[in-house]
């Protein structure tokens, strides 16, 4: 049995939730490895829509084990609210879910700090400040939260620091620290039965022949190290994060699948060379319903970016690509694809490493003819219009990565798996 990472190859919201939900049947465990409730992974089943934030998208399959790995930052209030909404529709979250005792705990003061300092258009969930405390070795972990005495001492120390900062900003009244402490002691009792050493759980399961699907959040270009820094999230969203964020060694990972939209979107600030700031961008936003599943913010829309996808393929070692939302392009007469960047007189096909380089990069487009007919819901590759096939072939040739799976709608059955592809080998 193989262990597979499914991750976002662009700037997030590629449709990871749908793909994880669809293919996790073949796995024993689904594990998240980074991020927090900044993620919003949509799973559409009939007329029911679920948006998973902290809990792995596999949880909707009865009996499937779901793991929140050590690499996440967990807001217990958000977790309990998400659990409650899943339990209301009959999901047995308490039995299925395991939470790492090494995951970091997110507190309301992280949100307060973020409101003061956010300069890049974050989700304002407190994610960055919580990871700052982790990297600064001031964080409080799940295991600490569950140990009442230790938690009390740690919380007092952290609270004193946060209060000093809040006073300096003149917002000390916003921090009701006694209340926060009492709330978190209450959360601890409710979460306790699910918290364990998930690195051991996962490694024991793998040794016993079980298989794990790793569910990425955000996307490669939002990765703290490899993304468009500083316009990134604060965790390792690329493939390497799956190992550090769960404690499963690289030698146990067998395949990596990248999810990419047939175009590109991003939410929040930062460079986006293939952004379509014209009416075509608006058209994609409307047709693709490109509004954030967590914050409701309109997503910035643009064209498929070949240098970006190649970079993502290199960094993650992507074996196969899932191209989602092909149906959103159905009505377009022509479809621009960014094939290179121009800076001054130079054209490059590599992703610039610096923000200055990215900001100076102007997209160079090749236009492909649109197919102008509906692909919505098509589930066999042969049934796609020839021009849609040509578009996919163009992406494959230029990125050097196969499009082994194509999504033509939000629902499970609106998916094409290409026979004979590497994707088909990974998910037989
Ligand atoms: P994630 O964060 O990567 O899981 O993606 P989101 O759930 O934030 O955003 C993807 C959105 O596109 C969701 O509303 C999905 O239901 C929807 N979606 C996924 N795949 C397709 C597709 O192939 N076609 C269309 N039209 N919508 C899709
Ligand atoms: P999923 O998992 C798209 C973006 C924010 C902001 C930057 C940093 O649904 O793909 P943060 O709150 O993480 O510190 O914000 O990252 N961002 C996402 N964009 N999809 C996401 O998650 C995102 N999570 C964070 O908009 O630009
Ligand atoms: Mg999302």
Describe it.
- With 428 residues, this protein is of the alpha/beta class.
- The chain has 3 domains: 4-100 and 196-252, Adenylosuccinate Synthetase, subunit A, domain 1 (Adenylosuccinate Synthetase, Chain A, domain 1, 3-Layer(aba) Sandwich), CATH 3.40.440; 105-191, Adenylosuccinate Synthetase, subunit A, domain 2, CATH 1.10.300; 259-426, Adenylosuccinate Synthetase, subunit A, domain 3 (Adenylosuccinate Synthetase, Chain A, domain 3).
- It contains 15 helices and 19 strands.
- It has helices at 16-23, 76-87, 93-96, 108-117, 127-135, 142-146, 148-168, 177-191, 198-207, 240-244, 279-287, 306-316, 355-360, 386-399, 422-426; strands spanning 4-8, 29-32, 41-45, 48-52, 65-68, 73-74, 97-100, 104-105, 195-196, 212-215, 255-261, 264-266, 300-302, 320-324, 334-343, 346-348, 362-369, 403-407, 415-417.
- The strands form 5 sheets. Strands 9-7-5-2-10-1-11-14-18-19 form a 10-stranded mixed β-sheet, sandwiched between helices.
- The longest helix has 21 residues, at 148-168.
- The protein is globular, with a radius of gyration of 22 Å.
- It starts with a strand and ends with a helix.
- The structure holds guanosine-5'-diphosphate, 6-O-phosphoryl inosine monophosphate (IMO) and magnesium ion (MG).
- The site of magnesium ion (MG) has 5 residues, from loops.
- Guanosine-5'-diphosphate binds next to helix 1 and strand 3.
């Amino acid at each position: 049995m193989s262990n597979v990472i499914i991750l976002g190859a662009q700037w997030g919201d590629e449709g990871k939730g749908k793909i994880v939900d669809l293919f996790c049947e073949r796995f024993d465990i689904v594990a998240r490895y980074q991020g927090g409730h900044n993620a919003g992974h949509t799973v559409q089943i009939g007329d029911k829509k679920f948006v998973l934030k902290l809990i792995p998208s596999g949880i909707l399959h009865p009996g499937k084990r779901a793991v929140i790995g050590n690499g996440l930052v967990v807001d217990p209030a958000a977790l309990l609210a998400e659990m409650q909404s899943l339990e209301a529709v009959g999901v047995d979250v308490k039995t299925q879910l395991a939470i790492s005792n090494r995951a970091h705990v997110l507190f309301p003061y992280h949100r307060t700090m973020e409101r003061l300092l956010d300069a890049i258009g974050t989700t304002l969930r407190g994610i960055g400040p919580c990871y700052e405390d982790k990297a600064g070795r001031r964080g409080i972990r799940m295991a600490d939260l569950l140990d009442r005495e230790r938690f009390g001492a740690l919380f007092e120390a952290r609270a004193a620091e946060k209060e000093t900062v809040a006073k300096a900003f003149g917002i000390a009244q916003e921090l009701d620290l006694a209340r926060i402490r009492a709330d978190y002691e209450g959360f601890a009792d409710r979460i306790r039965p699910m918290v364990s050493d998930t690195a051991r759980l996962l490694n024991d399961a793998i040794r016993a022949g079980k298989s794990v699907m790793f569910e990425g959040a955000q996307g490669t270009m939002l990765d703290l190290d490899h993304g468009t820094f500083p316009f990134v999230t604060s965790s390792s969203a690329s493939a390497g994060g799956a190992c550090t964020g769960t404690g499963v060694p690289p030698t146990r990972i067998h395949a990596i699948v990248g999810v990419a939209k047939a175009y590109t979107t991003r939410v929040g600030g930062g460079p986006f060379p293939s952004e379509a700031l014209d009416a075509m961008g608006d058209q994609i936003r409307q047709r693709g319903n490109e509004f954030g599943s967590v914050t409701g913010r309109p997503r910035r829309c643009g064209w498929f970016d070949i240098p970006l996808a190649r970079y993502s393929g290199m960094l993650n070692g992507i074996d196969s690509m899932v191209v989602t939302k092909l149906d959103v392009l159905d009505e377009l007469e022509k479809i621009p694809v960014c094939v290179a960047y121009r800076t001054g007189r130079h054209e490059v096909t590599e992703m610039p490493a610096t923000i200055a380089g990215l900001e100076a990069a102007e997209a160079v487009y090749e236009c492909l003819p649109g197919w102008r007919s509906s692909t919505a819901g098509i589930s066999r590759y042969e049934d796609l219009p020839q021009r849609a096939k040509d578009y996919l072939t163009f992406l494959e040739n230029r990125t050097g990565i196969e499009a082994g799976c194509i999504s033509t709608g939000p629902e499970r059955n609106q998916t094409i798996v290409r026979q004979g592809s590497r994707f088909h080998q990974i998910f037989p």
